[in-house]
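Incident log, support desk, overnight shift.

02:14 A customer reports that sequence design results differ from what the structure should imply. Their input is reproduced verbatim below. On-call engineer (initials T.W.) acknowledged and began investigating.
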């Protein structure tokens, strides 16, 4: 179905004040809105969004999104206890989204990942609306691999059962890779019926990244690394992000290049990085951790990445 002039309800369990929402949701919606798609965006925001500072950021972002004909609503994200908190969020999302459906002429629901897909499935059954399951990845398998869930535990089994129901009902599927889709096409839930599919890999906004010699020198001077080799990691730490393995890799690099320096850019815990580097025998003078907060994400990350070694 052509999307121009269509009204889409986009549901994200990630917050729009978080780095992921800022980099992987908002830019896409803005570009699609330029092509005539009208969005109502529903997200789940963490506790900082409900402080006085967070509420001010929400007002600024809401005004910014409205300029692209994107109407943004948000609910509070609940984390613990895990299953009851998630169930509460799903019920709250179904109720809120149902009210939106009654007030607006929504023609399609785009569910970003598994939790929003449960909400979208409920809306499809209640209102007969089409839905897209933006799968992102194999949620149950990823949580098991990371050690967060047991393979035969309640959370993993419930997630796979829900995933199966969503796949049997969805009108479209988005995956991050062609490899995942080629595997999914063999699943019984997707056989014997037409399903629209699109692979949309993660990407960057190249307009945010410019190599400037003087800026690079300034960053390197700030870090005190001179002309040495600088390795930069930008992203989350801990859990399944292989922080220990990256520290071990740098230790091996350090044995080959004594001038090597590791710069970590993250919104996560500096202590997590420090513990990993200590376990690999890395001296504190051979690395730095910069906490890249959401407000400065798009400005700070490209600037620090410019300090990395270039070939």
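02:41 Re-run completed on a clean worker. Output:
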């Amino acid at each position: 179905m052509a999307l121009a002039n269509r009204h889409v309800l986009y549901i994200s369990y990630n917050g729009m004040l978080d780095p992921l929402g800022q980099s992987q949701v908002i830019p896409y919606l803005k570009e699609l809105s330029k092509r005539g798609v009208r969005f109502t965006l529903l997200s789940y925001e963490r506790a900082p969004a409900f402080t006085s500072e967070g509420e001010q950021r929400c007002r600024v972002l809401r005004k910014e999104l409205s300029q692209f004909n994107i109407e943004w609503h948000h609910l509070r994200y609940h984390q613990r206890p895990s299953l009851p908190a998630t169930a509460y969020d799903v019920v709250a999302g179904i109720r809120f989204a149902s009210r939106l459906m009654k007030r607006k002429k929504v023609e399609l629901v785009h569910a970003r990942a598994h939790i929003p897909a449960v909400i979208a499935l409920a809306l499809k059954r209640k209102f007969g609306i089409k839905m897209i399951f933006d799968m992102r990845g194999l949620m149950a398998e990823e949580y098991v691999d990371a050690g967060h869930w047991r393979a035969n535990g309640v959370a993993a089994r419930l997630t796979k059962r829900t995933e199966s129901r969503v796949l049997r009902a969805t009108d479209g599927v988005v995956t991050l890779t062609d490899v995942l889709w080629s595997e999914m096409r063999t699943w019984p839930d997707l056989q014997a019926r037409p399903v629209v599919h699109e692979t949309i890999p993660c990407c960057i906004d190249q307009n945010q990244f410019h190599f400037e010699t003087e800026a690079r020198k300034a960053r390197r001077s700030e870090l005190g690394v001179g002309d040495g080799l600088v390795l930069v990691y930008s992203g989350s730490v801990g859990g399944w992000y292989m922080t220990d393995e990256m520290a071990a890799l740098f230790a091996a690099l350090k044995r080959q290049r004594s001038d090597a320096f590791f710069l970590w850019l993250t919104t996560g815990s500096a202590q997590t990085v420090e513990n990993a580097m200590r376990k690999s025998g890395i001296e504190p003078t051979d690395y730095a951790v910069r906490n890249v907060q959401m407000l400065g994400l798009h400005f700070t990350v490209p600037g620090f990445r410019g300090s990395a070694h270039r070939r």
